[in-house]
Protein: GNAT family N-acetyltransferase
Amino acid sequence: MTLPLRIERLSSRSPHVAIVAAWTHAEWGHLTPGETPASRRVGLRDECGPAGVPSVFVALVDDETGGETPVGTASLVSDDLRVRRELSPWLASVFVPPEWRGQGIASRLVRRVEAEAAASGLACCYLFTPDQQALYSRLGWQDHEALNYRGEDVTIMVRRLNAE
Structure:
């Protein structure tokens, strides 16, 4: 059974900005020294573009109170790895809270970002990951380069778009 979720573009005025910023800061804040939760919220709002690069997406499920609960996020940004600024754009900040993992949410978020990039006429997209190479490989991403970034071994991967 497929989880009934919606993937929506995150607006800078969305009530979900705070939780998405908290997730991404907790998960990857160590890669951006000097960043604070408050500065991450400001940065995230700047990434909430109307289309193309930059864009932020949030996966939502309806909750029992009639509201909606964010259950994941992913972004399309121009620069995600300071040492490889010549590569662009990037699938970034793919995150699903542990209690929601294993339900295909990350895969659906990745596909949404790929669709956004393709619709913008982009030929390819990059990402970097320390430990999710298998997930991205299953989704058609290919290894591009291995490197150590700020003390963490990561793999840069590339996805050619419109080449199904």
